[in-house]
Amino acid sequence: MSSAPEAPVCIAIVLCNECIEDKRTNNKTLIGLFNAITVQTIPAMHPRMVVMASITNSSKTLSMVLIIRSPSGDEAAHIEAPFPALDPLAAYDIVFELNGVLVKEPGTYHVDLMCDGSYLGGRRFDVILTGPGQG
Fold this sequence. Notes:
mainly beta
């Protein structure tokens, strides 16, 4: 059996409008889960977005980076945060709160979670333009 530590594993990434955390139990209630944002005009400011990532398989402080990229590859958001993970058998929920995310183009945006410089997991969401003249 190898004594080398295994890499952390991302088991979920969820997008929502709000996350309420119970201080006593650390349980989280996610409100307004979404896979797409509808806007009337471009550019548009999405007022609030919460990204919750669940990770496991780590017993050290992790250097986490969350990046949201537009369809053309530009960064729409970038957050760096250390996260202490003490038990490799536990699942940890990491909550990133983003206020005022600027979306400059319609299409598919990518949410990437990086850990210690390596890709850990990701997901997508769509920005749909429904303003005048749109189908």
